[in-house]
Amino acid sequence: MIFIWRSWATNTAGKNAEGKSPTELEFDHATSTHRERLVFVKGDDDKSRAPEKASLVSKAGHQVTRRRFADIPSLIREVYASLVETLETRGVLLIKPFDDSICNGATLQDIDNEQVTAFVETAESKGRLALKGSRAPKAVLQNFNLIRDGKPTNAAMLLFGKNPHRFFNNAQIHCLHFHGTEKQKPIASQQPYEGRLFEVIDQAVEFVLGKLDRSVGTRSKSTRAPVEFEIPRPVITEAIVNAVAHRNYRHNGFVQVIVFANRIEVWNPGELPPGLTAEQLREPHGPIPRNPLIAEPLFRVKYVEKAGTGTTDMIAECRAARLPEPDFRQSGPYFVTTVWRDWLTAEVMAGLKLNDRQLKVLPFLKTNHHISNPEYQTVTGTTKKTATRDLLDLKKKGIVEQQGIRGPGVHYIFSGKRVRTGTMET
User: Fold this and answer.
1) Taking the model in full, what pTM does it have?
2) Which of 55, 103, 123, 147 would bridge 129 by S-S if both were Cys, CB 3.0 to 4.6 A apart?
């Protein structure tokens, strides 16, 4: 039996002696009787809900995946998708996996043979492919199980199609850049990328790297000066590749990659496989690809590994770069990976006890990377004496570093990199 909890109909009237509403009692009963619970929450603004409702939404979110909806038609879509997914998981409803299904309306004429040949050459150069049979494009596709009944599968078209967008409107990565820390207009820049998966991955990675700070080293070990980005390239690549390889392609949404002043977010349509939680991504775990026929070619050209180490590698790379560990969470029908550009996460901020003026100036610091005393006065509307005191406090807490000793040339640089630990690094 499936229990569907409709939080949009929550009624706090008729509470019991413990202060629980009928809806919360229903939810607790479904939990205690081990029923499957599908939770649908209307709207995205939990802060505006009554305290009892907000508490119940949070309580449910710690136990099951919550799906968001805006109106009745979107609720119907979410309920339908959830029921199908649940029945598939139970084995009651048998549907061929998306990547293994024949691409509707496509023929082998829609495959770009040159791309197949280029893939073989790249995979061989990476040391992950040693073909013993025919190197003809059709034979290669058959070798990777990308042909069914003489027709290309969805995976074949997404990886090697001449025009994948013709068959999949949702197979794109939409990249956005915001100067601030919130998703609000004006949008600094945005670019949708569509095409073969290898190409859109590369384009999305370059979009992000183009927005990040970088440093150029010396040519002591090579004829080319090394370039280091504020976030290591492998971290960005892993986050985007994971979204492409593990997303739910039956979902009408598409992957979003969003660059903020303090973080990168990758929104992936889909959910983690049953039995795998966001917290377990921080520990060694086995590979559970949602789309194995897509993941296999990506592995062959070293876009992914098949050891379940992708997320733990991201964590290690961020630690080595003196950045906070990435965050992983489910937000409605999307799985979200957050990579931090600086150490001032919500967790750290809560313990710093900054005053209202300092909190107000942080977005300016994260966007401009430096601030002077006169600029602090302008942003916060305070006096020079107060600005000096606030800036020295920010310096003491490691948020800024002072440049210069005295005079008009003195300014403060935002300290973007610290390790997030149980206590603040000083």
Assistant:
1) 0.69
2) 123
